[in-house]
Batch of 4 targets.
Target 1
Amino acid sequence: MKTLIILVPALAASAALAQPQPARHSAPGAGANAALDMNEMICRSQAAIGSRLNRNRVCATRRQWLEQQRMDRLYTEKAQTSRIRP
């Protein structure tokens, strides 16, 4: 009986993994985000500054999140490459 209990979840997991995944088609060179809806609203939970427990929910479109990520990357690169002059 114990063998059957262990075997059933294992079979269910393997069947779920065997399901074919839908293919995302995009134009060559269009980037990984070409097949995604850029106007889709995405909400994320972000830690509040100065608190380890408090979190804020921030909602924006996919396009806004990608732009924010790009600006953060540029700011970080600029900070890392700029020299401090006396």
Target 2
Amino acid sequence: MSDDPRPADAKMNERRRRLPRTVLALSLVSLFTDASSEIIYPLLPLFLTATLGASAETLGVIEGAAETTASLLKLVSGWWSDRVARRKPLVVAGYAIASLARPLVAFAQSAGQVLAIRVSDRVGKGIRSSPRDALLADAVAPDQRGRAYGLHRAADNFGAVIGPLIAFSVLHWTSISLRHLFLLAAVPGLFALVALVVGVREEPRAAASVTAAKRGPLLSGGLPTRFWGYLAVLLLFTLGNSSDAFILLRASQLGVSAALLPIIWAMLHVVKSATNTPSGALSDRVGRVPLIVAGWLVFAGVYLAFGRATATWQAWALFAVYGTYFGLTEGVEKALVADLVPADKRGAGFGWYNLAIGLGALPASIIFGAVWDRYGSARAFELGAALAATAAVALILVVPRRITR
């Protein structure tokens, strides 16, 4: 018998409140990784256009190609992680590749070299992301999924606050060049690898689960119809969701200085981080679909307003509101994937989820950049807003409010 005098219900509730060590450690890994990435990312559009002379359309090609590469690998790595006893080795390999490639932007002399480095960085992300997301789902009970993914995204976004603040501090208080600043991204990347290797403990998955995955059809077998409907709607939304490099470029046009771009980017991630976990926990109670629909409608409104903005203060306000879109959807979209797919297909399910986003990322960014160059930024943002609003309506029709698995 247990020596704990508390009632059984109280002990059960405490266990439900706790998130496993794996979730906490992976959250810390994402915090350091995003701190590394976001030292570079807010300044990359300026570096490409001002230093290397690239156009908005070239920026769209680079970002779209990088994300599409990552998404194709996310499908393969997720599927493979279902067929092996441990997912952690794939996660470690992916983070290591990205941490080594990312700081090499400091040495780039052309847009083509930036493309190669960005693609290499995203290769690492492609290898790690789906196995990591499946590992998170394996570690928690169904009624903790929203909170677990919300916490993970909150840590990720807090890292995206730290990175721009480092960049701002270095640029503001020193005379260091952008290239030397980009080299600093290697330091938090190293911390992420240490946290991953030391902090994440994974129990081998059950032999029956691995065997079932190996016997299933390649890549797409065993996934339900509702899941494919969800992905179709997600792809529609993604076609209007171009790279955030464009809203950084728009902020620059509205008068946000180069030194303040990391700060406005950090503010965005403060809002993301503050809203991720509460939104995830709320989705555990009221369902995933209402949160995602609300987030997509916020996105549509923000994009519409970005196209019509005329003042610097409006850029700051819109970035803050834009953060709530991420808070409402980032963790909740992933929790919905875990709700919809069987346990032995989680890696493949997250792989297809990430592929859908990636398949939309390349045309979304290319089309957005082309419309911007030819018709102006307002038309490009209006297109994104229209696709987001359409997808929000479609999601209500395709996916039920609650799914039990």
Target 3
Amino acid sequence: MSRFIVALVAGGLCAAAGLGASPDPKDLTIPQQELSKARELVRKLGSEGYREREEAYADLVKMGRLARPALLEAAATDPDPEVRFRCSRLLPRAGADDLKARLDTFLADSDGKYEHDLPGLKQFRKTVGQDEKSRSLFVDIIKSPYNVELLQALDRTTTEAGRAVADRRGLLYSHLQNRNLGGRVMPPQQIPLEDIACLLFAETVVPSKEIPRTGMWSYVTGATFIQQQSSNNALNNAGAAHAEAYRRIVATWIEGREDVQDLNQLAYIAGQQLRSFPQSVPLLRKIVTTDGVYGYAKGQALMYLIKGREKEEQAFLRSRLKDDTLVTTVWFGNVNPNQQPQQLQCLLKDVALAMLITQTGQKMTDYGYKFPNGAAVNDGTIGYGNYAFENEEARAAAMVKFGFWELKQSLKPAAKEAPKDGQPKADPPAAAPAPARR
């Protein structure tokens, strides 16, 4: 979007409330006499006379959106290359004027009575809803012409939409840095909630594989911005502006995360900031099972996954007992002064086994786990990174031991269910009467 179009749309949005625009989109219909006037002016763009061509061009500029249908038609089909060229030059401004008029109409429709043809609105309503809270957030989103530009891209090809998402990520991230603008250093800025909401919404629409990763900030994703102050406030404070509608976007966004770069960043975020979302549980599982995700992120996700969900996730932990992903290298220091410092690898299956052992009331030391000197062993809050097996034989022996332990548990007779509180215990069966003497 060129600078003059940004300025045109932005200026219109700022003044929309006071322009007295009609709330009914039907009032934007272009009268037939205006269409005829525009077509006649377009025809004059191919005139032999220079003055006539220039006057027609200037009049078409003044017509703005009213000339847009004629310009579109001529730019695509007119046989005169001069006419096609001049119409293509006029179209961006006419398109911006048309968009401004539609935005003004939407803003004037404060009761939401009418259907509006706006960039991204149909998909936004499908994702976020059509209630007043959703509309209020959308209104604030489209007050930024850069958000409008991103929403416009969503209605075009996936390639264009992906490029627009990548560009928007880069622009927003640049606002978090010190910037030198013509010798003037601009300090980092807080990102407004509506800008974060718009980006996350766009990421729910555009598949991750369609978003290019180029440039110096290729690692930046929506996960980078969900930790910003405005986002945290909306996630943790139900009374914050747009909190409810924003949480709907975040919930849908969580469900669609599949890119490895996103998943690498989301282990901590899903386990802490987003823990109240039901969607965080399958997301944490996805982080653990996706190839290419860093080992430390998998270990972290596993730790947050079982927190408060020990019983529910035991089957998932068992499914990880063959996962050889390296989670971390544990430094044991100089075990022997005559030897090199000892470093042992902790694999994902080691973490899963440690969690199963502690959940079943057993001790890790009984299974051969080694802890660095001075490391505190807390079987009640086992994490990862401070224990390991000395070698592969010790790891295999621990797996076999746990397998035998589970087998023995399965062979134990099921305990009889104790009577619930408040219920009388069942009386023992009465003894059979003794036979009568003869």
Target 4
Amino acid sequence: MLRREKGFTLIELLIVIAIIGILAAIAIPMYKTQTIKAKMTEVTNGMSNIGSAVAAFYQENNYFPTAADKTTIRNSLGVSTDALTRAGVLSVTGGPSAQIVATITGIDTSVDTKTLVLTGTTMATDQSISWAWTTTNGMPPAYIPKK
């Protein structure tokens, strides 16, 4: 009586290993990119919170606030320390437009030390504020928020 052997052949195992290798080569860079985007979302959310406080200040006083440090921003605009820490905010400057500037740290080497700027300008017709995201030193476009 013949016995049938059970199991996988060497070729079948090598094909499975090759497929897993190809999937890993694609998935790992995508995972890294999505992780950076998630952390950048936390930064932009913090900056947006500060932008909301600046807009409220503008609507009440008809000029943008000038605040050079985190304590002044927190005390005069009522923004939480968490939002400031997440955003790594350096400054909020007033004038004809408001600029909220943050230098990114502790996320990834591709975005660390890059500067993200949220600029608010008033519309002449209805005094509403239009916000735009920019960068000053070459942050990869994939990590800059859309309008």
